[in-house]
Design brief:
This protein is of the alpha+beta class and 784 residues long. It has 4 domains: 3-166 and 772-782, Penicillin Amidohydrolase, domain 1; 174-195 and 274-351 and 407-444, Aminohydrolase, N-terminal nucleophile (Ntn) domain, beta-sheet knob region (Penicillin G acylase, beta-roll domain), CATH 2.30.120.10; 199-272 and 360-406 and 450-528, Glutamine Phosphoribosylpyrophosphate, subunit 1, domain 1, CATH 3.60.20; 536-653, Orthogonal Bundle (Penicillin amidase (Acylase) alpha subunit, N-terminal domain). The chain is built from 20 helices and 34 strands. Helix 4 (96-105) packs across helix 6 and helix 11 (409-421) crosses helix 12 (423-430). It is globular.
Length: 784
């Protein structure tokens, strides 16, 4: 039961309490549906958070619980290409929920109580509402049921592990005779293991770069706009103990990116490696045994039984065997398979990471940068993210403290040697920098360090870190360039990322924006910079491209002559930005899309001047000589004409977000190809079952679909913050809006704001909240 007091009415007392046996939380919703949740302890705070999240996103939470449990096949069938079946086999084989439950049971009491409260709040909302009245796309679904704390911990573990992304490889790995397996494996499509890496921008400014003389933060995670892995905004308060604002992923209690009165932080996905692959030499005639030094080791196996829904609604029992080496699961790796001679296996650095939630509590409670850093040093439990943080005293800090395999210098040397001599090792390295080692060589095991969280991972003392009074940042390239005036050259593991290597156009744009600012940033200037939508590629290439096509207004491309006059005129008049009204942005994007990813980094087909490690933000540059650029411009213009798109079509007519059939024009760009910081792209969220707009691709275009440029991944939660003498002051967008219910006004309200670049203030101080309450209610229930 809950009592509800609307704005303007007298609030009731706390819910009737049975002493310590009752959860009690107050929720005040302000503009845009933001909940400010207050409770007396973490259990009740979790209850309020679980209840409020279920109001907004019960479907997304339930969807991911079913996935983590390995039960999608039961409710949805085997799926296309058996994707549900493969997921379920893998989740059960890895014992995701079971292991997470055991880890949770070993956590301190307040963590256990937090999770228990969150689940109780979710279940309370589901019981009150009933599955047939749930808001959103899952209404009436038979997979809506009460959940457990282990389910939520299991969901957290599922997205913390990298190997869960390899479900098809784990679930289909089985011993077979060599020739047939080699043939079948060769039929697998080429796999880009780097494709799932997220993207984000994070800035921390110190006292020397801040107009107010205190710290400033820019948070700009790039994440899905649909389904799971979205953020949910919240304000969590325990009087005298916690005052924490920010966002966390839907279905997880707490704040992952945010601030308190003293500290603000954000994360970006680290370029480091969480997984090492190992190639095993198999014992002749014994495909489930492998050589390990002078000995022979037998693989372990686990038999998985599943219930799979059939087209007629009945259930069919399916059994599969999953195999393991001492490193981890055996993989049916694309192009390799499981032959008589070898097979691949993998070890995940987060497999033994038990302190993920525990670390965020002291981070959120930190009263200084030193306390914030101490939380990283003590727990060493961040999974796959960099941290960019600032403080009220004006200290800016960058660190890659994500879980990273620790290899010996001998192993690193052997890996580098094999990248030059072994085709498979080289192939995996080129596909996202993945690490492949000889699993039959004991010398290549991960190393134990007494200072590390657990044996086999890099210790905090050896992780890349940089503290500054001007700025630090990260945009998903490696740690090396966190500030161009203080490059992190040092003896760091290459599994944290490479040094002295080319940076992405987006990384370069971030550093040039920060280092090139004369004077100090105000809050408004910092917010305007991230949404300035400047294309660094255009700044480096457009003028020369226009000059070249004016000198040569006709070119032969793909055997046919093409008149470049109109294309040249369009680019000459383009402002070099990707705003809604920008004319020429679409043509330039299609031009850049004619190049390959490797062309963007070094001298060659695109650039005339090569990368220089002494000037990583400024190089490479200058359009490469030859006719290729004009031919690619002709190809881009010809494609647009074939799609009945004017060469000078405004970007806002082509790039959009679909919200339940309503189309919103969206500014921003691809990031990788144009160098925009405000990244928006058609990157499908493959982890969710939530329906989404999915138009077919256009042939010969890297970006266009039948409907234009749909935005389903990119800038998600944007926050610009400064510390002042009165505490933190901030403004933000949650680009896809707070609610998952299409009938709610909070399903689109912030999307409209973002489309107009109209930042909204974050309400943090009590007087701000009290003056904007739209709904005030209390929730509670019995503790179990």
């Amino acid at each position: 039961m809950r009592t509800l007091a609307l704005l303007g009415l007298t609030l009731g007392m706390w819910l009737p309490s049975a002493g310590a046996a009752a959860y009690e939380a107050r929720i005040r919703r302000t503009s845009y549906g933001i909940p400010h949740i207050e409770a007396k302890d973490l259990g009740s705070l979790g209850f309020g958070e679980g209840y409020a999240q279920a109001e907004d996103h019960l479907c997304s939470i339930a969807d991911q619980v079913v996935k983590a449990r390995g039960e999608r096949s039961r409710y949805f069938g085997a799926g296309r290409s058996e994707e549900h079946l493969n997921n379920d086999i893998t989740m059960k084989a890895l014992q995701v929920v079971e292991d997470a439950g055991r880890d949770l049971a070993a956590e301190p009491p307040e963590i256990r109580e937090w999770f228990a409260g969150f689940v109780a709040g979710y279940n309370q909302y589901l019981a009150e509402t009933g599955k047939n009245n749930v808001k959103g796309w899952c209404r009436g679904a038979d997979w809506l049921f009460p959940i457990t704390a282990a389910d939520i911990a299991g969901y957290h573990r599922m997205f913390s592990l990298t190997i869960t992304q390899m479900a098809a490889m784990i679930a289909t790995a089985s011993p077979a005779s060599g020739a047939a397996t080699e043939s079948a494996a060769a039929a697998w499509p080429e796999l880009d293991l780097g494709a799932s890496v997220g993207a984000s921008n994070g800035w921390a400014l110190g006292r020397d770069k801040s107009a107010g003389g205190r710290g400033m933060l820019l948070a700009n995670p790039h994440y899905p706009w649909v389904g799971s892995n979205r953020f949910w905004e919240k304000h969590l308060m325990i009087p005298g103990k916690m005052d924490l604002y920010g966002v966390g992923l839907i279905g997880v209690p707490g704040v992952a990116i945010g601030f308190n009165p003293s500290i603000a932080w954000t994360h970006t996905v680290s370029a480091g490696k969480r997984v090492a692959f190992y190639s095993l030499d198999l014992v002749p005639g014994q495909p489930t045994s492998y050589r390990y030094g002078a000995e022979k080791r037998a693989m372990r196996s686990r038999r998985i039984a599943l219930s799979v829904r059939q087209p007629d609604g009945s259930q069919k029992s399916v059994e599969r065997t999953v195999w393991y080496s001492h490193y981890g699961p055996i993989l049916n790796f694309p192009g390799i398979g499981w032959t008589e001679k070898r097979v691949l296996t993998a070890r995940d650095a987060n497999g033994e990471n038990k302190g993920r939630t525990r670390q965020y509590l002291p981070m959120g409670r930190a009263r200084s940068m030193r306390e914030f850093q101490a939380a990283h040093a003590e727990y060493q439990s961040l999974t796959w993210v960099n941290t960019i943080a600032t403080s009220a005293e004006g200290v800016a800090w960058y660190a890659d403290t994500a879980s990273t395999p620790k290899l010996s210098p001998e192993a690193i040397g052997e890996w580098r040697r094999r990248r030059e001599t072994d085709e498979l090792t080289r192939r995996l390295w080129r596909q996202g920098g993945n690490v492949l080692l000889d699993g039959s060589d004991p010398r290549l095991e991960w190393q134990a360090d007494p200072a590390a969280r657990n044996p086999g991972v890099v210790a905090y003392k050896d992780m890349p870190k940089l503290e500054r009074s001007d700025y630090v940042f990260n945009s998903n390239d490696s740690f090396w360039l966190a500030n161009s005036s203080a490059l992190l050259d040092g003896d760091y593991s290459p599994l944290h990322g490479e040094q002295r290597t080319p940076r992405s156009l987006r990384t370069r744009n971030n550093d040039l924006t920060l280092s090139g600012k004369r004077g100090k940033f105000t809050l408004d200037e910092m917010a305007a910079a991230i949404l300035g939508n400047r294309s660094l590629a255009a700044e480096l290439l457009k003028d020369e491209l226009v000059a070249r096509c004016r000198r040569q207004p006709s070119v032969v491309a793909d055997g046919a002559a093409f008149d470049l006059t109109a294309a040249c005129t369009t680019l000459a008049g383009w402002d070099g930005r990707n705003d809604l009204a920008s004319r020429g942005a679409v043509l330039f994007r299609e031009f850049m899309g004619r190049y390959q990813p490797e062309d963007l980094l070094r001298q060659g087909r695109l650039w005339a001047v090569d990368f220089d490690p002494r000037d990583p933000a400024g190089t490479p540059h200058t359009l490469a000589p030859g006719e290729l650029a004009l031919q690619n411009l002709a190809r881009a213009a010809r494609l647009m004409q074939s799609r009945n798109l004017a060469l000078d079509v405004p970007l806002g007519d082509v790039q959009y977000a679909d919200k339940a059939g309503r189309r919103f024009p969206i500014h921003g760009g691809d990031g990788a190809y144009d160098g925009l910081m405000n990244m928006q792209r058609n990157g499908r969220n493959q982890t969710t079952l939530e329906p989404m707009d999915n138009p077919g691709p256009v042939k010969d275009s890297r970006f266009l679909t039948e409907k234009g440029y749909p935005v389903v991944h990119g800038s998600s939660f944007l926050m610009a913050l400064e510390f002042t003498d009165r505490g933190p002051r901030a403004k933000a967008f949650l680009t896809y809006s707070q609610s998952g219910d299409p009938a709610s006004p909070h399903f689109t309200d912030q999307t409209e704001l973002f489309s107009r670049k109209q930042w909204r203030p974050i309400l943090f101080r009590e007087e701000e909240i009290r003056g904007d309450v739209r709904r005030d209610y209390r929730v509670g229930g019995l503790r179990r």
